[in-house]
Every structure is written in C-alpha cells, then in structure tokens.
Amino acid sequence: MWRRVTSLSPFISSSKPSIRNQASYGGKIWELFTTEILTPAKAGISSDEKTPFITFVVGGPGSGKGTQCAKIVETFGFTHISAGELLRREISCNSEHGSMILDSIREGKIVPSEVTVKLIEKEMESSKNNKFLIDGFPRTEENRIAFERVIGAEPNFVLFFHCPEEEMVKRLLSRNEGRVDDNIDTIKKRLEVFTALHLPVIKYYSEKGKLYKINAVGTVDEIFEQVRPVFAVCEATK
Ligand code: ADP
Ligand code: C5P
Ligand code: MG
C-alpha cells in the first residue's frame, strides 16, 4: 500500500527550451524537449516502501504506450494503470458515467478529470504494489492539476513517446481491437485534441526536469532498449 506525499525527487533532467513562439516551430515543437539520464547518486530516489513511485506514460494515440508498459511491467514489476482502459471498463459495466464516457471516447474528447482521477485513485488504493505506471495520463493541464490535488503526489518522472502522426495513424488503423475510436474520423479528432492540449503538459514536465523523451519509431524491442535504462537507474538505487 502507499501513502500520500507532497513531492518526490526526479532522477532525470531535461533541457529547458524556450517556447516563446510555438507557432513558428509548427510540427517540430516536440523536438524541443530533450532529456538526459542522471546518475543514481544525483537522483536521490527514496527507497521507502510506502512511498509510491509514480511514472506517467504519455504520447499520442498509437505511439505505443500500452505496448511498452507491458514490457516495463514484465521487466520491472510496476503496476500498469491505463486511464483509457479504466474509462472503457466504466462503459462496459454501465456505471453512472458510462454513457458520458462513451460519448467522449467516440468524439475523441477528454473525460472530465474528476471522473478519471477518481478511477485512478481507486486502482492505486486497491493495489499492494507501490510502483505505478499511469498510462495515457495526464492528457491535459486539467488532468495534471486534478491528480496533484486528489492524490497529493507528483510523478517521479514522465515517459513521453514521440511518434510521427502518419505512423500513429497507420498503427491505429491496424490495431484491430474493435475500439469505437480506432476509425479515421475519430483518429483525426484525437490527434487534434492531442496537439492542442498535450503540449502544455509536456512543457511543464520538461521544465521541471521530469520528462524523458523516447523516440517511438522502430521495433518494439528497439524502443524498449531506450526505455530500459530509465528504469534500470531506479532499480539500481534500491
Ligand atoms: P497506445 O497505447 O499509445 O495507443 P498501443 O501500444 O496500443 O498504443 O499500440 C498501437 C498499435 O501499434 C498496436 O496495435 C500495437 O501492437 C502496435 N505497435 C506498438 N508498438 C509498435 C511498434 N514499435 N511498431 C509497430 N507497431 C507497434
Ligand atoms: O489512452 P487511450 O487511447 O486508451 O484513450 C482512449 C480515450 O479515452 C481518449 O481518446 C479519451 O477520449 C479518453 N481518455 C480521457 N482522459 C484520459 C485518457 C483517456 O478522456 N486521461
Ligand atoms: Mg493505450
């Protein structure tokens, strides 16, 4: 079980790009965020078993977040909490918010943060683990602020899967999981929402030195070889 804390130490740091004129960077805006891994000594990770170790996993739709989370779980023993999966579960059990969530997902819109954060909180509280991968969250500044307020914690670091749009579209159209939002019309809306609302979140964590950017193009194993060292540093400090 975990207890609430107010702040946790990062073990990665990033450059602090100036983003005075976002428009002039166009589609290259994501390129501005770069990260280096620091040594464990500099990192100062707590080994307190009760303190939750929280990683947010962010990136566009189809960038491979869920796929890489499964490998992180297998290799490093984290508990995977996918915000999208929690929301889909609410639809399938006809919960109080089920129909509102279904409408939002169909339209590629973001579900109100209070709903999503409550679901995440419930998962964290019912887990015996204290290491969490929170996937597909935060999508917006509102998501981020609601998490800090309700959970009373910040992520130790944030993994950002950076993938070109055309590659994400290709992957989503061949995902074949029967999802109501994996069709070209909804995909376009999801990409618009991602571009419009996600940048401030990425910028926030980059400036806090918590962002680790992963190049999400390549095979699943090649990508995991970029992810592994981030978590290996964490293991080394135990
Ligand atoms: P996300 O959780 O970010 O939406 P997923 O992990 O579900 O993305 O991946 C989307 C689709 O792309 C899935 O069908 C998955 O099998 C596939 N996929 C994941 N990683 C890769 C990769 N590196 N190369 C090609 N396809 C991939
Ligand atoms: O992450 P995933 O692709 O599974 O998310 C599917 C949909 O769930 C999103 O397009 C959005 O409608 C909803 N969602 C949300 N808030 C989140 C995560 C997902 O509203 N933090
Ligand atoms: Mg996913």
UniProtKB/TrEMBL annotation:
Binding note for cofactor: Binds 1 Mg(2+) ion per monomer.
EC number(s) recorded for this UniProt protein: 2.7.4.14
GO biological process: 'de novo' pyrimidine nucleobase biosynthetic process; CDP biosynthetic process; UDP biosynthetic process
Entries under Gene3D superfamilies matching the protein: P-loop containing nucleotide triphosphate hydrolases (3.40.50.300)
Residues holding CMP: 143
Catalytic activity of the protein: dCMP + ATP = dCDP + ADP; UMP + ATP = UDP + ADP; CMP + ATP = CDP + ADP
GO cellular component: cytoplasm; mitochondrion; nucleus
Compartment annotation: Cytoplasm; Nucleus
Keyword 4Fe-4S carried by entry: no
GO function terms (MF aspect): ATP binding; CMP kinase activity; dCMP kinase activity; UMP kinase activity
InterPro entries (UniProt xref): Adenylat/UMP-CMP_kin, Adenylat_kinase_CS, P-loop_NTPase, UMP_CMP_kinase
Origin superkingdom: Eukaryota
Listed Pfam families: ADK (PF00406)
UniProt binding sites for ATP: 62-67, 175, 218
EC category name: transferase
Transport found in the keyword field: no
Coiled coil: none
Positions that bind a ribonucleoside 5'-phosphate: 88, 109-111, 136-139, 179, 190
Cofactor (UniProt): Mg(2+)
Biological function: Catalyzes the phosphorylation of pyrimidine nucleoside monophosphates at the expense of ATP. Plays an important role in de novo pyrimidine nucleotide biosynthesis. Has preference for UMP and CMP as phosphate acceptors.
Domain comment in the entry: Consists of three domains, a large central CORE domain and two small peripheral domains, NMPbind and LID, which undergo movements during catalysis. The LID domain closes over the site of phosphoryl transfer upon ATP binding. Assembling and dissambling the active center during each catalytic cycle provides an effective means to prevent ATP hydrolysis.
PANTHER family (alphabetical): NUCLEOTIDE KINASE
Protein known as: UMP-CMP kinase
